[in-house]
Specification:
By secondary structure, the protein is of the alpha/beta class. Helix content is 43%, strand content 15%. Helix 6 packs antiparallel against helix 10.
């Protein structure tokens, strides 16, 4: 009798341990690639390299994580790669700008993915987009800029990127006088163009300004003059909100729908459609465990990265919400963001 009980317990423990052993055996000795849709040195790259240094210890089997940059076409090359080429085996994670989700809804040419079919791992932060202009323009406030009607050259990455889409909306909604110079491979390249005088400003997240434009911000070479978010960021109490300059109901609706919606989906990490659900869950848990890891947080602080994480399920809900855009605004949005 006792022998039978011991045999049953042995079988029970073997069955209980099987899923854990399978998880360990799959990732053990493997390398997980994080494909970043921008060039090295920008915010997307910096977040990814910081995460890659720490997330492996939170995945059963402790795989290696390596970052691969795949810039081009305003993040679109990497996004299409994740949907069409990357194997759905849990060994390739993508990171590109969430503004492409709205571009999918609006029918942007070249989009070959359906954002609603990706498996979302999480997001390290929710971006707060602001507009910065060069000291050399002489512009120190948005009121001065609007009244002077000075045309400022803003650097952009491409349609679907906040660097491009937000200024386009602001040009329509508040009459912002800009000339968009687009096609850079990432905000790191925009920064180089800014420092050489090729462009005079950029719409970027405050988080990226603090992390990768620190020298320009601290020296006063770039002045933040406008916040493109629903409420003021604690760091920027005196910088006005874009929506307060919209004079029409349409302008306010456009800013709420096309600008304020960008931040919560700006920095998604995702897996190809069809990735096994157990591996999705492993990576979701590992991602959120990393976001709470003291060593990761200390590392992020060193490079001025803000961490305000969303888990995979919440990020997925936010992405799906993008597709709930008021149908009445779709034709106008297509016209503005073309």
């Amino acid at each position: 009798m006792r022998r039978n009980i011991l045999q049953l317990l042995s079988v029970f423990f073997m069955l209980s341990a099987a899923p854990v052993l399978a998880q360990n055996s799959f990732y053990q000795g493997k390398t997980v690639r994080i494909i970043v849709g921008a060039s090295a040195g920008g915010g997307y790259d910096t977040y990814s390299r910081t995460i890659a240094r720490h997330i492996g210890k939170h995945v059963p089997g402790n795989p290696t994580f390596a970052v691969e940059n795949m810039p081009g076409a305003g993040f679109l090359i990497s996004a299409n790669h994740m949907y069409k080429v990357a194997r759905p085996d849990g060994l390739t994670i993508g990171h590109f700008i969430g503004g492409l989700f709205l571009q999918q809804l609006l029918g942007k040419p070249g989009i070959e993915f359906d954002a609603r079919k990706f498996e979302y791992v999480g997001a390290p932060g929710q971006d707060n987009y602001v507009l910065g202009v060069a000291k050399s323009t002489g512009i120190t406030s948005i009121d001065q800029w609007l009244s002077s009607k000075t045309i400022v050259k803003l650097g952009g990455v491409g349609a679907g990127s906040a660097t491009d889409d937000i200024p386009k909306v602001l040009a329509t909604a508040i009459g912002l006088p800009i000339q968009l110079v687009s096609g850079y491979k990432g905000t790191a390249d925009v920064r180089l163009a800014f420092n050489s005088g090729e462009v005079q400003g950029v719409c970027n997240s405050w988080e990226s300004f603090k992390a990768t434009w620190r020298k320009e911000v601290d020296s006063g070479e770039v002045n933040v003059v406008l916040q493109n978010i629903p409420k003021q960021h604690p760091d920027l109490p005196k910088i006005p909100l874009a929506i307060s300059y919209a004079k029409t109901d349409e302008g306010k609706k456009l800013i709420r729908a096309l600008v304020h919606s960008v931040g919560p989906t700006a920095r998604p990490y995702m897996l190809p459609p069809g990735t096994p659900k157990d591996r999705v869950q492993i990576l979701r848990r590992a991602f959120m465990d990393t976001m709470k890891d003291p060593e990761f947080l200390a590392d992020a602080k060193k490079v001025k990265l803000d961490i305000n994480a969303l888990d995979g399920a919440e990020l997925e809900r936010n992405v799906h919400a993008v597709f709930d855009l008021d149908p009445a605004l779709v034709p106008r949005a297509k016209e503005i963001l073309k």
